[in-house]
# Entry
Amino acid sequence: MTSRWWLPVLDSPEAAAPRRAYEIVVVGCSLGGMHALEVILTAMPRAFPLPIAVVQHRHRASNETLPSYLRRFSRLPVVDAEDKQWIRPGTVYLAPANYHLLVERGELSLSVDEKVRWSRPSVDVLFQSAADAYGAHVIAVVLTGANDDGAEGVKRVKARGGLVVVQDPESAEAPEMPRAAIAAAPVDQVLPLDRIASYLVDRCAVASPA
# Structure
């Protein structure tokens, strides 16, 4: 049975947070993340209206491997982000290997600044920039991972009024990243991996097709 003593989560999605017009979803993952992203993107409807920016810790030589893999499962376009790229709704933007991905208002940017939490791309960098740009209109999702990258970003998202969803560590291949996020701030939902996509669809008021 899943241990829930450490989960600061409300019992129902409807009770989790006030309804508001969200504008972007940001996702962070590391070890086990490719499978987690596959599960979520497979369940996302083609009509999902928000852009999704993703940091998956990846090898600097991964090139096109990750986006081409995820396109096999996603109804949404999946691309590596480019510097100074305008953000389009219903598109999945991946942080390229060895670049930080930052969100500005309506635009993405890339950086080769120093590693954060030993990572480039860094989940913290993505989450913090999105929180600063979009405030309460951000949904941040923390998935499986073997370090604490993302915990500081979760703090920033919550401080700006955004919504934080965390994969239940019991369903994560590597529970350290979800646990660090949960310990960092009062997150809104802790969900099994297979419930995250439907929760996002519900929060964004999208009908999920067959």
